[in-house]
Specification:
The chain is mostly helical. Helix content is about 75%, strand content about 0%. It is globular, with a radius of gyration of 18 Å. Keywords: Membrane, Transmembrane, Transmembrane helix.
Length: about 110
């Protein structure tokens, strides 16, 4: 068994390469692309119908976090105080997203 191919593959997962790849993809604008949203919606619907909870949780987590991050960056990252609307939306959306993922992965049995 030759491990050099595995080592070559793992070199693609270095942090600098992953960050460069994400910057090339321009993830912030990806959430506004209707093709991306449509494909994520179709994949989530298929995962829901086939009872693939892990895939559904992954899709909802990635898409939801992308939207939440995009919304927060559009509103500005300046925090006026503890009652900043952007901060409340980010924290509330993050908590709701985590609760949905926990429900899908650990609570829902059927």
């Amino acid at each position: 068994m030759d491990l050099s191919k595995a080592a070559d593959f793992l070199k693609h997962l270095e942090t600098e390469r992953v960050i460069a790849f994400l910057q090339e993809m321009n993830v912030g604008t990806l959430i506004h692309n209707p093709w991306f949203l449509g494909s994520m919606g179709a994949a989530a619907l298929i995962a829901l119908l086939m009872h693939w909870r892990l895939l559904l949780a992954t899709i909802l987590g990635i898409t939801g976090f992308s939207w939440l991050l995009s919304y927060t960056l559009q509103q500005g990252t300046a925090i006026d105080g503890p009652a900043s609307q952007t901060l409340l939306v980010f924290v509330g959306g993050g908590v709701a997203l985590i609760m949905v993922i926990i429900y899908l992965l650990f609570i829902k049995t059927e």
